[in-house]
From TrEMBL:
The keyword Transferase applies. This is N-acetyltransferase. GO terms for cellular component: cytoplasm. PROSITE patterns: GNAT (PS51186). SUPFAM superfamilies: Acyl-CoA N-acyltransferases (Nat). Pfam families: Acetyltransf_3 (PF13302). The keyword Ribonucleoprotein does not apply. GO terms for molecular function: protein N-terminal-serine acetyltransferase activity; protein-N-terminal-alanine acetyltransferase activity. Residues 1-159 form the N-acetyltransferase domain. It comes from the Bacteria. Keywords: Transferase. The lineage of its organism: Bacteria, Bacillati, Actinomycetota, Actinomycetes, Pseudonocardiales.
Length: 170
């Protein structure tokens, strides 16, 4: 897996990921449309990235992720999406670990905080496996179903990440 900047040529493929008819209802607001809308209105920052996730062997675009700084200093967030035909191959896992290593190591952030819709069991499980812990819950109106979407807020500190994922040198 390789992370690189999103190129103009990637837009068609990323938009195609939104056309998946098997997507769960919550994904309609949590997928690439959300990513694009967020990026369109977000001020540029040196720590805000739009990254493509591609296979190292074939350079196939399998997904994307974006980062943004939180309102609290030293805290960042990210969103990740993997195309439907590329899920369950470990790409999200690898991309998240790589991103966290860079943001905690080189960029010196102290914490990562993400919001995941409670219906997205796969993402909640993945983040728990990576060491994220639930910090709270929030609800927001869902314009597609006239109901509420429930967001699980999860966090991971740089110290917890280092302990779990980076080998110690003796």
């Amino acid at each position: 897996m390789l992370l690189r900047r999103v190129a103009a040529a990637d837009r068609r493929i990323l938009a195609g990921f939104d056309q998946d008819p098997t997507r769960a209802p919550y994904v309609q607001t949590d997928g690439y449309r959300h990513w694009a809308a967020h990026r369109a209105n977000h001020p540029d920052s040196p720590d805000d990235f739009q990254l493509a996730i591609e296979t190292r062997r074939d350079q196939v675009l399998v997904g994307s992720m974006c980062t943004s700084q939180a309102d609290e200093p030293g805290v960042f967030s990210y969103g990740v999406g993997i195309g439907p035909m590329h899920r369950r191959h470990g790409y999200a896992d690898d991309a998240i670990i790589t991103l966290l290593a860079v943001m905690f190591g080189r960029r010196k952030f102290r914490k990562c905080q993400v919001g995941i819709y409670q219906e997205n069991v796969a993402s909640l499980s993945l983040h728990s496996k990576l060491g994220f812990r639930e910090e709270g819950r929030a609800s927001e109106p869902d314009s597609l179903s006239d109901g509420m979407l429930h967001l699980v807020i999860m966090g991971l500190t740089a110290e917890a990440f280092t302990t779990k994922h980076l080998p110690r040198s003796n």
